[in-house]
């Protein structure tokens, strides 16, 4: 039976005196309530109205969500890993199959650490997964912790790092050129990018290494005149070997960015936004169920 466009079941009764069976009332299909809540865009109040019950009853129905971690069928994988946050102290760390789009492992964290990423990787290894490569966001120390897995740093995150140092509209010509070069990284090849960066370095070497000349400074070594420009350049130089792993080892199937994972995060944030105001525990249940159904 359908009520207000929602699936429901007719409740059946039996008379204890005469044994006659008859129908009466409407019984909610709790699995459909959960589906409408997780997959749809209805709030608890809207669900309560549609099913003709109060919000407390809908909350009890949603308590039936029980997350069971799925083990992916395919064990040869290239992974993407990153963490997204909802405010302070509530983050979701995800390891995802880069080829098939499945979420292989996830964990709720207060803040991301190397140990937690390693925990997820070791969990996969213990289940027989063979990991050919991993895409990371550039967290210091993580490539060393993941050895011998080949690591690709997300090129988009490198662009964000440089942009954070230089801003989107820098005044200095050297900064504008460096920002333009790093913005081309996803649309060029390794040799062209490295060549362009080396040319930039030769052209602006004096600008990058210029120090403050002020007799009032008592330090033995004066500070650099443009520390943010220098930091932006050094971040590219330091991460250069990790930015082209996908190019050097095409057999790994590594993507050059974590954009697919960022798309997953955007989807999850949209889903949570619909149900604003829910408690942290209910948010976890919502995310667990949504990931299980869609990823």
Q: First CA to last CA: what distance?
A: 31 Å
**Count of helical regions:** 12
The radius of gyration over CA amounts to 27 Å
Poorly predicted segments: 5-10
β-strand percent reads 15-25%
Helix content: 40-55%
Shape category: elongated
Supply the helix-strand structural class.
alpha/beta
Topology:
Blueprint: E1 2-3, E2 6-14, E3 21-28, H1 30-39, H2 44-51, H3 55-62, E4 76-85, E5 91-97, E6 103-109, H4 114-126, E7 130-136, H5 142-145, E8 150-153, H6 155-166, H7 173-183, H8 190-209, H9 227-243, H10 245-248, H11 259-274, H12 280-294
Parallel strand pairs: 4-7, 7-8
Antiparallel strand pairs: 1-2, 2-3, 4-5, 5-6
Helix pairs in contact: 2-3, 6-7, 6-9, 7-8
